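Why run this: before we spend reagent on co-expression, it is cheaper to look at a predicted model of the complex and decide which construct boundaries make sense. The entries below are exactly what would go into the expression plan.
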Amino acid sequence: MAPTLVDIAKQTQTSVSTVSRVLAGGAVARRISKETRDRVQDAAVRMGYRPNLVARTLRTRRSNTVALLVSDIGNPFFGQIGSLIEQSLHRHGYSLMLCNSGEDPERELEYLQVLSQKAIDGLILVPLMRQKRQLFQRISEKLPLVILDRPIAGIEASVSSDQDQAAGILCDTLERAGIKKVALVAGPRHIITHRRRAEIVAQRFDVVARFEGPAQKETGRQAFIKLLGALPETIVCTNNFLAQGVIESIAQIDRPPVIGVFDEVPAMHLLPLPIVCSMQDLPMLAECCVTQLLPQLRGEMVRIEPIVLPARAVTNQAFQLRHFQAT
Amino acid sequence: MAPTLVDIAKQTQTSVSTVSRVLAGGAVARRISKETRDRVQDAAVRMGYRPNLVARTLRTRRSNTVALLVSDIGNPFFGQIGSLIEQSLHRHGYSLMLCNSGEDPERELEYLQVLSQKAIDGLILVPLMRQKRQLFQRISEKLPLVILDRPIAGIEASVSSDQDQAAGILCDTLERAGIKKVALVAGPRHIITHRRRAEIVAQRFDVVARFEGPAQKETGRQAFIKLLGALPETIVCTNNFLAQGVIESIAQIDRPPVIGVFDEVPAMHLLPLPIVCSMQDLPMLAECCVTQLLPQLRGEMVRIEPIVLPARAVTNQAFQLRHFQAT
DNA sequence: TTGTATGCGTTATCAG
DNA sequence: CTGATAACGCATACAA
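The model came back. Tokens follow.
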């Protein structure tokens, strides 16, 4: 159906190698006589030739494709980061294949399997698993790899926010507001970010109630319902989805609880709830991923070290009003 | 490096064909003697054999992969829909390759090009372009295709919400609240959804101010700033991102404007702004995409017709309070 | 400057 | 039941 090198070779009375060389462009093409070169190029555009990337990949073992496997693309956090990474990678000549494990460890394994069989050039992974060994059971150690958001012990190429610092500034802000007791709504403890955040909060406050479940709105909703009897002064959620669930469950309440949360809460400054948010630097996270991946893709043996970025605390007006202090 | 059929054949004193047949499984495998079958299978697992999908695809012209090319994966609307489609497709044995054109027509063309060269089995597209011809210039007419969210004239396989109805119920709700004049913050008019929504609103209300720009928060912010001099009673935004920008720019205002918007606004019921939202049915949109794609993938020549889903209007408490009426 | 031949790892055809 | 062997479309080492 679609024309191949052979078709063009026939059409132009040349051989496949000549055609291949011409269409390869660059230095190789210039070693071909101008006449045949023009003739071939002409035929190529006339016949609407498009190289078959599958065949090319099989031959060269390069696909110019990087995969990003995230834990939940439905989460705007990963959507935005995916968007940023895609743009950056695109500027460097790679296309991005975005996959979604949906917080399901089995799907993660499957995708890792499939991806490694598909000759991707590199992988950026937001892992569900926590063991280096388990990971390298599925993919080659040779595959250019960057771990995003959830560091794995022993893997140097990783980009994440400093969870201790992020949780620290959140706690600082709450403490300065005189808060002593919190209810904790946490994501699964097997995910390092959720666990660490929860640990630190628990370390610095009196945790009067604690909930754990999938990092989805639903968990936040259910937690809030159970809290309704004795509403705590503060609810800390280990990510934005959980907080979203909590917030959506809050009807009109005279004195709503303070919400402490990680990652962005949309329109938070307008919400009539006091909110403290520990925000990650998304553009920087994305750019660092690319920075760590590119040298690996180029086969450069540069020394790579984990990148750990600081977060910043942001409060909204309702919080500032209640606690008489500025951002 | 990684073992191939040849390696296994050597190891088991058989031929590639035998190995291939055994590993193919099913009816083909059962035509092989139990002894050799076991021997081969054993060797395969022992050597950690993984079929090379690139080679297989080159040979069979099937990749078991569907691509979803969206206009902006940073928009939670598409993130959620991507997540839903991925899950559904996964159940049917396909993996999803999610690509992002970032509302950039050139990137869309590039991705279409690359995807069609990559032997994907099917494509779900949220198009930026509006011409059937332009599209089929890049991809084959034979490629199983579903157009999502922004129908293209002449393409039957398409899933979208009924923009007229969606805009209609939004206008109805505003009208019932006694609203006569609106400011309009619209996305690019070359995108059918934005244009149609804007048209209908303009048809039913007195548009006192009008802004147009990329469907990003920034456009909403800028529009709001320009409106500050003479704040209208109502601002209608043609999507959630624009509204997000508007909302984030609203500081404490005595009597904030009513916001009319399409798609979900997070935590809207708590916001101290009267909001009317015309919401699409995301899970249904996603499922319909898959429903329209699957028969095409299977090569069934069923009759396919555009699916147009209804939207529903939702108001928040602030709106209900101001206008004395329930949802 | 150009052509021939080989291989990438599979599947599929055709013998035996 | 099994084994050669020919594609799939491309890139490339080696000849000429």
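Chain B has 14 helices and twelve strands. Residues 4-6, 16-17, 20-21, 24, 51-60 of chain B lie near DNA strand C (CB under 10 Å from a C1'). Bring this page to Monday's planning discussion.
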